[in-house]
Amino acid sequence: MIKVAIIGASGYTGCELMRLSVQHPHIELVAVSSEKFSGKAVGEVFPSLGTTVKLTFHALAEQEAMREADFVFSALPHSEAMGVVPHLIQQGKKVVDLSADFRFRTPDLYEQWYKKHTAPELLQEAVYGLSEIYREKIRGAQLVANPGCYPTAVLLSLIPAVQNKLIDLKSVIIDAKSGVSGAGRSPVLNSLFAEANEGVKPYKIGTHQHTPEIEQELGLIAKQQVSLLFTPHLMPMNRGILVTAYATPKNMVAQKDIVNIYQTFYQNDKFVRICPPDTLPSTHQVKGSNYCDIGIIVDSKTNRLILVAAIDNLIKGASGQAIQNMNIMAGLEEDSGITQLPLFP
Amino acid sequence: MIKVAIIGASGYTGCELMRLSVQHPHIELVAVSSEKFSGKAVGEVFPSLGTTVKLTFHALAEQEAMREADFVFSALPHSEAMGVVPHLIQQGKKVVDLSADFRFRTPDLYEQWYKKHTAPELLQEAVYGLSEIYREKIRGAQLVANPGCYPTAVLLSLIPAVQNKLIDLKSVIIDAKSGVSGAGRSPVLNSLFAEANEGVKPYKIGTHQHTPEIEQELGLIAKQQVSLLFTPHLMPMNRGILVTAYATPKNMVAQKDIVNIYQTFYQNDKFVRICPPDTLPSTHQVKGSNYCDIGIIVDSKTNRLILVAAIDNLIKGASGQAIQNMNIMAGLEEDSGITQLPLFP
Amino acid sequence: MIKVAIIGASGYTGCELMRLSVQHPHIELVAVSSEKFSGKAVGEVFPSLGTTVKLTFHALAEQEAMREADFVFSALPHSEAMGVVPHLIQQGKKVVDLSADFRFRTPDLYEQWYKKHTAPELLQEAVYGLSEIYREKIRGAQLVANPGCYPTAVLLSLIPAVQNKLIDLKSVIIDAKSGVSGAGRSPVLNSLFAEANEGVKPYKIGTHQHTPEIEQELGLIAKQQVSLLFTPHLMPMNRGILVTAYATPKNMVAQKDIVNIYQTFYQNDKFVRICPPDTLPSTHQVKGSNYCDIGIIVDSKTNRLILVAAIDNLIKGASGQAIQNMNIMAGLEEDSGITQLPLFP
Amino acid sequence: MIKVAIIGASGYTGCELMRLSVQHPHIELVAVSSEKFSGKAVGEVFPSLGTTVKLTFHALAEQEAMREADFVFSALPHSEAMGVVPHLIQQGKKVVDLSADFRFRTPDLYEQWYKKHTAPELLQEAVYGLSEIYREKIRGAQLVANPGCYPTAVLLSLIPAVQNKLIDLKSVIIDAKSGVSGAGRSPVLNSLFAEANEGVKPYKIGTHQHTPEIEQELGLIAKQQVSLLFTPHLMPMNRGILVTAYATPKNMVAQKDIVNIYQTFYQNDKFVRICPPDTLPSTHQVKGSNYCDIGIIVDSKTNRLILVAAIDNLIKGASGQAIQNMNIMAGLEEDSGITQLPLFP
Fold this sequence. Notes:
Number of domains of chain A: 2
Strand order of the largest sheet of chain A: 8-9-7-10-13-12-11
Mean pLDDT of chain A: 97
CATH architecture of the largest domain in chain A: 2-Layer Sandwich
Number of strands of chain A: 13
Oligomer: homotetramer
Number of helices of chain A: 10
Order of helices and strands of chain A: EHEHEHEHEHEHEHEHEEHEEEH
Structural class of chain A: alpha/beta
CATH superfamily of the largest domain in chain A: Dihydrodipicolinate Reductase, domain 2
Largest interface: C-D, 46 and 47 residues
Low-confidence stretches of chain A: none
């Protein structure tokens, strides 16, 4: 059994990490931290985990609690993680960090979109945890930077096309739709039920902080700088991200050829499902699972390739992929503890 | 008072037409037809209208009921309207038809996307009822073809840019999101609560029947053939359409200049609201009203113009615009009976 | 035109008061206050009211703004209203207060459930604004205490039965269900979308602060002390309250006789609709309107009378009834400005 | 491995049975039937199960398909199951039937509420599959009648009180709230998104077909005839049942004593969680799990005991409990394959 601690565990990704960890056949959950709920039983904060997760939240300062952990998931907010993760690394623990703090290969982009980086020395060492793409590097890593929820769906849908040089990189437009849990558990006006329900709206068009993360990763695949338009929308649902990506193919290609390319690309990846012809993904069909469903359409009239990806933002977009990365790092079966099928309806 | 009949009144647009008609200061609602509910009181079928709409649905064959009507709204389904509307026109009644049957200037497109047209002689006479654009022609029309819900939002957001030759027409991509009421009141699997709730999915990418309507109308403005990609998505909400349209500007333009162009273009149009800088439309903010809110973003990094429009699909996208057209045809104030402010939250 | 000010106007009931006021044929809205948004245009805070409500929020201290108002709606929170309303009364303004501060006939109950009352001298003068029941008293009042949302639905459904001595008062159980907007616009954990969506839960069973208000009012009708069980539930919807009230009839009565009693009781009340036999109210059928729909079932097997009432909590349960009360106080038609039919779906 | 077939597998409970079966460590799913989708791959009908359930639906008539099954779940509709189950029993298969057809001990009640029973000889043999209560009988049964969704929640919350003679049986009132999936996957008007969303309504007050099932089972516990009022409500959510049951205690008892009685009653039942003092169940906290959460309130002011139970209607209310019963019948761990923790949010 791997002894695991989760820090910053009182948000939605923390709740999912706890849920998945206590059901994981090779994890023993030994400690969970939360500043806000320090001293409270997990079941008081998350009745859903009630009788099963028998731990009490401790404050981060009470480092004793984590001493026996070999492995740490950090679900701290952006810019807090970089203050804590270096100590865990020094103590020899393996870490999957779910914040943006270690996702950038150099501090410049981070500092441009977030703030001054206080642990830049770890950026080279950290491995970007898009499991299907960086599996080999993740295997040997001590620190994995778990991808953002939007980037996970965007990259899984675009990378095969980019790697196979199928599309004009300048043409890429990403229209993304996310459920409200993506905004976290903090009580803010825009996340109120009556503000989000029965409405849909775009936000941060071209200025969302996941843009540079997407551009960096596609640039590394394309081996050239990538600049694209990313438009997120807030949707009246708890979970799920749907990405509709538009690109112009470099050469006219048949839909079935692209489907073949994608099926080959992901042939060894259990969590990526390429939709059958004439069907399209829905967030409904992946909810509660670690799947990423990808649908492929070629519109010959306008010469566009349309790629659609659906994930559960809290699982493949966060906590599920974190477990997947831990499984890889620990030499376990990659799907260990995350084989749950989607909950429909 | 204008004596009005509504045929095909038992769907959601029929319900809205009845609701708006009985509150309209210049309408006397004299007859409502429904094959399915013929003989039933309106209040039995729509308890919301209960004590106010005191009519009983009659079958279409009982033409007597409509004899005294001067004005008819047809909310019959596509391809049924063209069997009925010619008789109404012959009887000298003015008609606003909410189906697709009279939206095309020639029968070809209609026959390609729908079916054989049985009243092609009316196509030249019919005026496309996008009120803000064709106000003058609508004024003198006997038959107005009310635009589709998606086309209304798409066209109002794109026409000023097209008319001012701001954008490369080949670059246009439209990502649209609609509430479930857009699919009508027929009990079909995809419209079930448990199928639509907590999920978002695209459908009919590049093949939705509103595509040729949008292309025809933009082509008439641009005076050239237009071919574009239209991708609708089904959203877990009752009402609302949000259109996010992407286009490449022909020349670099400043956001504020485009905002000015739009404000000028719509300066006499009460129902079009251009969003203040740095704000974006939400369907939440137009629900229950005849407004179309338009937001304008220029992303200089990728050289894209993003136009976002929000409408209530059942009001500005259907029944509200139908009343607006009737007001114009009858020489009334254009906003008569449709001044309701949005219901928020 | 009546010159109206709204204080505490930046919550959901404030938004509704503004929406209804600017569409009211006899109201000129002259000032709106908000501490939080003081200095901001209404359209910035509520884009739905955007181009129509052209006022700017002022702080309460800037009393100048309200000087010309003859009539004031106070939508301040409980316990804040009693600090402000006495000054307005002294200035000779007519006031409808939407808080609980003036709903109790004596300070004891208020102080037991809320806090120390600072203006107890106004309690005798204030008229409880349940329009259908206290119309005559409201007509002559300077200060009307608008009922709570739950009490409005509960009282309208129970009062005819209580007044006609049809039920055993000790038997009454009220199971109520409310949309999330009832919790207001403050960002609190329980009102977050992801906390409230896809779930239903009871809260404050037997301890909700609307309990004494209901008991006081039923006691006044029954001319004896009333003690009942009130169980509210939080529902995943924006608007609406449904009350399912259970009581044991004193004598066996036929359903149609009780329906007759209710129809007679409310025969002059446009906003109360008694459901036809075999139909039951739904919040869906009153949304966006000032209606209260009441359904009546007698279960002879268990000898129970079940009364079901549905209202829009922000309209008949708050702002709509406030306007109704103002209409009565000002000698206008009682339904002036609030004749909107429900928005379905 | 137990070879399992599911008949009538194309509804929501069938989907859940397949999902749980293929993840169950001791089940091999060998056949699934559906008349409507016969010949279609499961993944075509339920993309969520896509790559995992590799079976094709067969028609019931193709009995070959089921020959190798030792165990059959029947998710056929009421009144269809009784035409099929007798054959399965004759063939020596063990059966859990999810319809109402074998829930009644004698045919009278069934025939009064449903229709003529065609296999009454099986009624005595069938065991009512409320796992926590009838575990011993289920162990030896060949045919288990899985309880209805409402009865499961109602009975688990009331049985300890009834068995301990805590309450006056004549006083019981049950106010229940259910998500829309409870109505099944058939396309009917009331289950449409736009009809059910943003609204709550009661239905079949006192006349719901689960009433006699509840009365029969409580009567068996109480050893006397029970007659109670059951009022279901339709809620705008996919999954979940919340039951709020009201009863008058025979003698005044303290809340903590009743909590103790319940904790003792269910001390060996993993799937029943008694809420800590001052907390109440929410369907949100059991979604996706086989748990039944029970909250207990004593309102001393009105002398009422209020019992609140929350379940996932498709799991503990149907397919999860069916698996639980199969586990008991097969001598497996009772929670085998159904240990999933709730999915929150």
